């Protein structure tokens, strides 16, 4: 059979797959991109979920998320029933079925649906019998056995540096936080207390509003009117610490999709929001339109852009995003230690550019959503060595907890903090001033 005939058969096959199976099929495509190709979900979601109705997209995302969050557990339950590791496509089907069974889905339905999917896939059809036999066995033990399995560990490339920086107990606490996932946090455009009351959320000491359970953001009161935006409680702190005043000339140097830009624009500062990515800036403009806030937006490479000088600069530099694993369980599989060095170089170059764009007497807040010291304190210490005009200023606010402070004078936030409240993303934040 020729290539076109084969593709045609595959397309016709896809059409025959029952509608109810499409979220699982899409989840498997997401898993194959992350686990097979090392691609982050954010890079492939748009393409792989294209054409699916919103509920099916959401279900596919939830299924892929659950498998990635629990991968070592599913592999542990599967291991006794496999004499050798099956090819990736079959293994991912088994992992998906095992996770669904373990999370309490009706065994008969899950097994027959996953076997149906196996029969439908070109790479998996030959393993239909194996999938059936293994999942039947897993179904007998999964829900009880699951609960007794250890919390999944991070892969070595990330676990090793975290152990070195924080010690094994803190690293294990972060792994528990990653496994538990993250609540929904909102930042209010206006009064946070009023937003907490309107949404039934909890007003956190830092001013964010935390919503319990799973909700549809667009259905929350005030969404259409732009009364709030979604932003993790830790991610809301850098702009608060910059403290941009009304009328101040402020630069958001890596701005998109704009959570921090919106915070600064809401204070009445005159904000320039710059980012190298056109599509990400388009999202920032959508956020500005929904919230009725105004800034200047610039699509440019910060390393070569001329402007300023600015009274205040926020540099939320591109980074490993290892502080956001709670929300992005694909990240440990989609990054490697090799991806870190170029990011660290870019961060240093961006800090140097920020210093050049800052007015004498101006304030620079540097932050990254990373857990790794080389993207946080080490960057700031090196920058202070390169720029004699720059001094670190100890952040001061009534909501700062002593445990958050790092020895050099920044804030070191990790996902295991606020465990009883539902945690926070990992962030490093430092506030510096340029001599007048
Ligand atoms: C951590 S994200 C920023 C998140 C944003 N501050 C927020 O709160 O929504 C880093 C951003 O840096 C941008 N970026 C990367 N390299 C850049 C460069 N050379 N110049 C300007 N922006 C850059 C990326 O496009 C990305 O949007």
From TrEMBL:
Q: Which residues bind S-adenosyl-L-methionine?
A: 254-260, 275, 316
Q: Which PROSITE patterns match?
A: NOL1_NOP2_SUN, SAM_MT_RSMB_NOP
Say yes or no: keyword Membrane present: no
Instruction: Give GO BP annotations, semicolon-separated.
Output: regulation of DNA-templated transcription; RNA methylation
What terms describe the molecular function in GO for this protein? RNA binding; RNA methyltransferase activity
Q: Where is the SAM-dependent MTase RsmB/NOP-type domain?
A: 152-435
Entry keyword annotation includes NAD: no
State the source organism's domain of life.
Answer: Bacteria
UniProt feature, compositional bias: Basic and acidic residues = 1-22
The record's keywords, sorted A to Z, are: Methyltransferase, RNA-binding, S-adenosyl-L-methionine, Transferase
The active site of this protein is located at 369 (nucleophile)
Extract the InterPro entries matched here: MeTrfase_RsmB-F_NOP2_cat (IPR049560), MeTrfase_RsmB-F_NOP2_dom (IPR001678), NusB-like_sf (IPR035926), NusB_RsmB_TIM44 (IPR006027), RCMT (IPR023267), RsmB/NOL1/NOP2-like_CS (IPR018314), SAM-dependent_MTases_sf (IPR029063)
Gene3D superfamilies to which the protein is assigned, alphabetical: NusB-like, Vaccinia Virus protein VP39
Segments carrying the region annotation (Disordered) are 1-23
Matches recorded under Pfam families: Methyltr_RsmB-F, NusB
| PANTHER family to which the protein is assigned, alphabetical | NOL1_NOP2_SUN FAMILY PROTEIN _ ANTITERMINATION NUSB DOMAIN-CONTAINING PROTEIN, NOP2 YEAST -RELATED NOL1/NOP2/FMU SUN DOMAIN-CONTAINING
Record-stated family: Belongs to the class I-like SAM-binding methyltransferase superfamily. RsmB/NOP family.
Can you say what this protein is called? Methyltransferase domain-containing protein
Species for this entry: Pseudoroseicyclus tamaricis
Q: What is the lineage of its organism?
A: Bacteria, Pseudomonadati, Pseudomonadota, Alphaproteobacteria, Rhodobacterales
